[in-house]
């Protein structure tokens, strides 16, 4: 059997060699040869023009989605002012309802100590909301200095063609690099970065606190107002005055708005609190997760060099150096600068050696 196969394979190999030889020596017509050469030359030209050492599937996807990114960036850029006006108008409407509708009602029913407590708490909360919002929208997030050769950088921004220090990222809406960029916030019409990150978080926290206070404190008034509105279409119709009807609707509006904002903003604040506890920004969260998975596949452990431990992360973030600062810098309006310059990231001197060695895993 093996002999029969070898007899058949021998002539087959010979035929194949002859065919290849003929094919190799076959000469193409001059016109076809010219066309093939031009086609090859064109391919080389096109490849050399499109060559990019950073190219890959991510670049191709980015390029395909570029028109959508452009549209979203421009919509957010131009709608920023509208969002800021919306925040101011909605917050002012709640304050106006509290003064014009809620205050006359509680003045008749609440005891003096209870009134005093509400008066001091509500005004303290309102002052902190207004202060932190104003600071968050007016404080620049911090930008890398131009033309300095002495700073430590980790890469070059592909958009600005400028050196980027560690934790710096390019904002496509502001169209510039931002130090320790967290995200671009349309509600602030500003980037959240090194110099205004604390103002942003404090605003979210105190606004959530204020909304919880308003919706919890006005629960009884809301129920009464809602019940009264349901009787509007009864026969005979109830004898509510115009002022009473406006008060009912205002209380329902106040409760629904504050409850919705408390839920949505509360979730956002909780998420940012988790990130701050881990010594990460929103952007670093994604980068670190990918890096953690990459190193895990190689059997190595990822270490976040900006994580000093939960408590020290909060102290660095809030700028708390002494125990007294929890009162003067956190619970009262304070415009102190954050630690560091946003370019080099040495831990503050009071961070203990133990904390400095604690790295996130
Ligand atoms: Zn840039
Ligand atoms: Zn921005």
TrEMBL record:
What topology does it adopt in the membrane? Multi-pass membrane protein
Q: Where in the cell is it found?
A: Membrane
Signal peptide location? 1-17
One Pfam family this chain carries?
DHHC
Q: Which reaction(s) does the protein catalyse, per the Swiss-Prot or TrEMBL entry?
A: L-cysteinyl-[protein] + hexadecanoyl-CoA = S-hexadecanoyl-L-cysteinyl-[protein] + CoA
Record's Gene Ontology CC terms?
A: membrane
- Xref: InterPro entries: Palmitoyltrfase_DHHC, PFA4/ZDH16/20/ERF2-like
Q: What is its EC number?
A: 2.3.1.225
Keyword terms = Acyltransferase, Membrane, Signal, Transferase, Transmembrane, Transmembrane helix
Write the protein's name: Palmitoyltransferase
């Amino acid at each position: 059997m093996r002999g029969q196969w070898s007899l058949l394979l021998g002539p087959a190999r010979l035929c194949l060699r002859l065919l290849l030889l003929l094919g190799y020596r076959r000469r193409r017509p001059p016109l076809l040869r010219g066309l093939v050469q031009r086609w090859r030359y064109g391919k080389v030209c096109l490849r050399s023009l499109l060559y990019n050492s950073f190219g890959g599937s991510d670049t191709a996807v980015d390029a395909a989605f570029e028109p959508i990114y452009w549209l979203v960036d421009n919509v957010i850029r131009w709608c920023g002012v509208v969002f800021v006006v919306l925040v101011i108008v909605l917050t002012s409407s709640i304050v106006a309802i509290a003064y014009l509708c809620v205050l006359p009602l509680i003045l008749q029913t609440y005891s003096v100590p209870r009134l005093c407590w509400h008066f001091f708490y509500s005004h303290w909360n309102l002052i902190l909301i207004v202060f932190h919002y104003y600071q968050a929208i007016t404080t620049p997030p911090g930008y890398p200095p131009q033309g300095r050769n002495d700073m430590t950088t980790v890469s070059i921004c592909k958009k600005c063609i400028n050196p980027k220090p560690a934790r710096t990222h390019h904002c496509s809406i502001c169209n510039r690099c931002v130090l320790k960029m967290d995200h671009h916030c349309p509600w602030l019409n500003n980037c959240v970065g090194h110099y205004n990150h604390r103002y942003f978080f404090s605003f979210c926290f105190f606004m959530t606190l204020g909304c919880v206070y308003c919706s919890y404190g006005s629960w009884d008034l809301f129920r009464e107002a809602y019940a009264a509105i349901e009787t509007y279409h009864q026969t005979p119709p109830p004898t509510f005055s115009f002022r009473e009807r406006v008060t009912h609707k205002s209380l329902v509006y106040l409760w629904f708005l504050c409850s919705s904002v408390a839920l949505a903003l509360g979730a956002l604040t909780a998420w940012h609190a988790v990130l701050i506890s881990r010594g990460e920004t929103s952007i670093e969260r994604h980068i670190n997760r990918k890096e953690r998975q990459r190193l895990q596949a190689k059997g190595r452990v990822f270490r976040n060099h900006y994580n000093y431990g939960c408590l020290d992360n909060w102290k660095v973030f809030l700028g708390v150096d002494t125990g007294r600062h929890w009162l003067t810098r956190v619970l009262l309006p304070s415009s102190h600068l954050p630690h560091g310059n946003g370019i080099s990231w040495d831990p503050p001197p009071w961070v203990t050696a133990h904390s400095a060695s604690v790295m996130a895993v």
